[in-house]
Amino acid sequence: MTSATGRPGPLDLDVLRVFCGPDGRYGNALGVVRDGTAVRGEAARQELARGLGFSETVFVDDDERGVVDIYTPTVRLPFAGHPCVGTAWLLDLLELRTPAGVVTARQDGEFSWITARPEWAPDRTLRRHGSPLEVDTLAVPPPGDWVYAWAWEDEAAGRVRARAFPGRGDGIDEDEATGAAALLLTAHLGRALNIRQGAGSQILTAPNPDGTVEVGGRVLLVGA
Questions:
Q1: Do residues 97 and 153 share a domain?
Q2: Known InterPro entries for this protein (predicted)?
Q3: Which end of the chain is more exposed for a tag (fewer CB within 10 A), N or C?
């Protein structure tokens, strides 16, 4: 249990890392409020998400049907990748109901997967660079477009080096791992990818014949 300042009673908050690397490190931090009804209304949820400071916070409104509500520190999202992967893993659900649509989920050994449609993802600028070194040495750009910078590490093998810059000016200059951007890049390239993002996170993807994309990775519970 974690207490939220200014909220009545304890807040049931789990903290996860999603898309961890092979050694279990890295991954993008995610806050999941299991009892979303304890924080009612978009304004209150936005305030809490801003105070928690995660790149995304999920409010679970129905843990049996998988109804979820997703927020960054500054905006509500109809869909996001790492929140859906992490929440489906945490609640052990086969479906999540987001404002964008129904996201299916599955477990496969150490990897947790979701299937979603590229058109559900927020707009991202996919910016290709000539080499992984170029990506590694990028400076954080000023606030503006949400940029997914990427380069081939091994094109034949589908291995990609990527970094993500939200450009929101909300204190999160770089996202360590972003499923929605990986989903968009997969749809753009039309092939399965093994993405090394941020300091050492890993995201796996695969396009499906019906136009959906699978996104998967490792999830760890780091606090409750």
A1: no
A2: Phenazine_PhzF-like
A3: N
The Cβ-side half-sphere exposure at 93, using a 13 Å CA radius, reads 23
pLDDT tens-digit profile of 56-115?
Answer: 999 999 999 999 999 999 999 999 999 999 999 999 999 999 999 999 999 999 999 999
Q: Please, is 123 exposed, middle or buried when counting C-beta atoms within 10 Å of its C-beta (0-12, 13-18, 19+)?
A: exposed
The tokens of 43 are what? Answer: 């304004």
CATH code for the domain of 36: 3.10.310.10
- The torsion angles phi and psi of 221, rounded to 5 degrees, stand at -85, 125
Indicate if 18 and 82 belong to the same structural domain.
yes
Q: Which helix (H) or strand (E) holds 182?
A: helix 179-189
Residues 84 and 130 both lie in one domain: no
Helices (H) and strands (E) in the chain, counts: 4, 14
**What value does the mean pLDDT take over residues 18-25?**
96
Phi, psi of 127 (to 5 degrees): -120, 110
Residue-wise pLDDT for 165-221, tens only, equals 999 877 889 999 999 999 999 999 999 999 999 999 999 999 999 999 999 999 999
